[in-house]
Amino acid sequence: MQGQPAFVTKAIAALNEAWELAASWLTSPAAWSQFTLLVASWLLARLAAKRLAPQLARMIGPKPGATGAIATSRRFVLRFLPLLLPLLAYGFTAIGEAFTRQVFGSGAVIAFGKRVFLLLAARIFVRDMLRDPFLRRLGRYVLIPVMAVYALGLLPTVTAWLESLTVELGNIRFSVMALARGAIAGSLLFWLGAWSNRQSTGYIKAQGALRPATRELAMKATELAIFGAAFLLLMSIMGIDLTAIAVLGGALGVGIGLGLQQIAANFVSGIILLIEGQTTVGDYVELDGGEKGTIVRMTARACILETFDGRWIVVPNEHFVTTRVVNYSDQGSANRYEVAFSVSYDTDINLVPGIIAPAVAALPFVLAAPEGPDVELRGFGESGVDFAVEYWVNGIDDGRNKYASQVFYAVWNALKAAAIEIPFPHRVVEIKGGLK
């Protein structure tokens, strides 16, 4: 035994002690009586569960096809019915434990049996009730091993050993037990935070009365609050003094002031955009820098624009606050466009508005309000008389809509039907001195 690590020595000593305990149980009438009581409790629990489970299912279960929060809660409670058998066995064993301790003055075997019943309950809980893949893995690799160690009565020994092992990170020292506790608690807290965030996001998105910008702001504020609370709670569970977080926050503030001004400016600009709501997801915008497209996503740092050719442009939020932004959408308002054309100088230009305006107005996407098509004389060009027809549409003239293309077709067909010539450039070349 000399030269062995301390943990191996303790493990061998624990195994020897367990073997001696098992041998003493095999030769002890009190132990056999407790074994008999455990078997009787299990058989009685099976009989009781077989009779009670159908009745509880009828009492708790909702009516077929029922919906709503109450029906959902009842279905959730029904998922716990498989725990009825081990919990009844645990309860019956606990009742008999008081009797055996009074008669024999010992209850070690029956206490072991109770812990085994709890292990069975944990196994059923993980196998039959946990449906989320992450929670099921956590239960399989954390809960069941811990309950198995507890059933063997080794949990205090293992806990003390993990507490004695330490990990040093500079001047900070953690025990392995604290790290394990923090890892498990952190996993549960951030899973719960992600689940809560999904639920709150779905609820906020369903509120049609709120503006899209308000919904985005509410979702981001809720996400920040949920994960901020989870982080602070995790620090408390791990035993980290929260005053250290205050020091870290001060250092972070100095860092933002010195080297992260643009990130801070974009973050604040993003909050301003969400509060004002003048630009939101779905709007078609054009910035002074030439960037233009439909806003498909707004983040804490930037807005993402999708161009007509499917490309994404990431524009920092600060640009929407400090530069001129043209919003063509404004939640579905109409937009005015124009198409230029020319007619020959031989044309009676007084007839042109009466020909072009009805042809453009007949297009299904052209609006009559706020104003119908308007034909304007723009000037006298080198080759012909220049006109332009102005029209209003709902939406943006882009690669999907192609409003201008259809208006050009309408102008062409209308002029051809009226036998009006569309001029093209002519050049007259005069040769002085004659040809030789």
Beta-strand content: 5-15%
Measured between the Cα atoms of the first and last residue, the distance is 126 Å
How many strands? 10
Tell me the overall shape.
Answer: elongated
Residue ranges: pLDDT <50 for 5 or more in a row?
none
Fraction of residues in H or I helices: 55-70%
Note the main sheet: 5 strands, antiparallel
Tell me the number of structural domains: 4
Strand order of the largest sheet: 6-5-4-3-7
Rg, Cα atoms, Å: 39 Å
| Helix-strand category | alpha+beta
Secondary structure tally, helices: 14
Topology as a string of helices (H) and strands (E) = HHHHHHHEEHHHHEEEEHEEHEEH
Average pLDDT metric = 78
Structure, explained:
The chain is an alpha+beta fold. The protein has four domains: 159 residues, no CATH class; 84 residues, no CATH class; 66 residues, Roll (SH3 type barrels); 84 residues, Alpha-Beta Plaits. It contains 14 helices and ten strands. The chain has a five-stranded antiparallel beta sheet. A hairpin with a 4-residue loop joins strand 9 and strand 10. The termini are far apart.
Properties at a glance:
single chain; 436 residues; 4 domains; five-stranded antiparallel β-sheet; three-stranded antiparallel β-sheet; 14 helices; 58% helix
Task: Briefly characterize the structure.
It contains 14 helices and 10 strands.
Secondary-structure topology with pairs:
Elements: H1 6-26, H2 29-60, H3 69-78, H4 84-104, H5 108-129, H6 133-151, H7 155-164, E1 166-169, E2 172-175, H8 176-205, H9 212-237, H10 243-259, H11 261-276, E3 284-287, E4 292-298, E5 302-306, E6 312-316, H12 317-322, E7 325-327, E8 334-343, H13 352-361, E9 374-380, E10 385-394, H14 403-417
Antiparallel strand pairs: 1-2, 3-4, 3-7, 4-5, 5-6, 8-10, 9-10
